[in-house]
Design a protein that fits this description.
mainly beta; Jelly Rolls; seven-stranded antiparallel sheet; 2 helices; 32% strand; binds N-[(3-hydroxypyridin-2-yl)carbonyl]glycine; binds fe (iii) ion
Length: 216
């Protein structure tokens, strides 16, 4: 698909506004990449990635895990944040310092100083995996933004309006891009198109997304 067009042009803008309250910080996480990948490995050793069930009983194509005081979980009972990993009945791994530093720096850069995430959802996409259009509304305080970090293979992010039926924009996200999303954009519908096959030095045949939230 040519919209995916290999990679971002060198020298392109480093910041890109998507809408009031939403911006992409291009390649912002690349400077932190080595520490992030080491710490990610430790997190998923303690809380392995798994395909959760939707409330309707479907297996999600994206594999997920969490770190931090709270983790996002989905099962037949619904979506919620839980302090315990349902697979182990233990607390989620602590949020690594490298994750926290990246999330707070990105939020500050985007105008949301004071962001203190207590939840980091780890999403792993294999080719064909996608996330249907949704709103993020399980968090307690919609005044807090979400910081979303893309690693590895590129993906096409869909960015809609406040109604599911609103037209969506397509935003390609590449390795190291960080989307900060808050204020008037906080409840916009969004999703991710099916991942294309590929290989990336950092993640092999996958895309990893880390989303940081203030959930509790
Ligand atoms: C993803 N991201 O990029 C999925 N949600 O894999 C999200 O669902 C998301 O990127 C809220 C804010 C930013 C996001
Ligand atoms: Fe989301």
């Amino acid at each position: 698909m040519e919209l995916f067009e290999a990679r971002r042009e060198e020298g392109g803008p480093t910041h890109q506004s998507l809408a009031p309250g939403a911006m992409v910080l291009r390649a912002f996480a690349v400077q932190h990449e080595a520490a992030l990948m080491v710490d990610l490995q430790k997190v998923i050793e303690q809380a392995p990635l798994r395909h959760m069930l939707t409330p309707g009983g479907f297996r999600m194509s994206v594999a997920m895990s969490n770190c931090g005081a709270l983790g996002w979980v989905s099962d037949r009972r619904g979506y919620r944040y839980d302090a315990l990993d349902p697979a182990s009945a233990r607390r989620w791994p602590a949020m690594p310092a490298s994750f926290l530093a990246l999330a707070t720096e990105a939020a500050t850069r985007a105008g949301f100083a004071g962001f203190r995430p207590d939840a980091c959802l780890v999403n792993r996409y294999q080719p064909g995996a996608r996330l249907t259009l949704h709103q993020d509304r399980n968090e307690r305080d919609f005044a807090q933004p979400i910081v979303s970090v893309s690693l590895g293979l590129p993906a096409m992010f869909l960015f809609g309006g406040t109604q599911r039926s609103d037209k969506t924009a397509r935003v390609p996200l590449f390795h190291g891009d960080v989307v900060v999303w808050g204020g008037p954009a906080r409840l916009r519908f969004h999703g991710v198109l099916a991942l294309e096959d590929g290989h990336h030095a950092a993640t092999g045949g996958h895309r990893i997304n880390l989303t940081f939230r203030c959930a509790g």
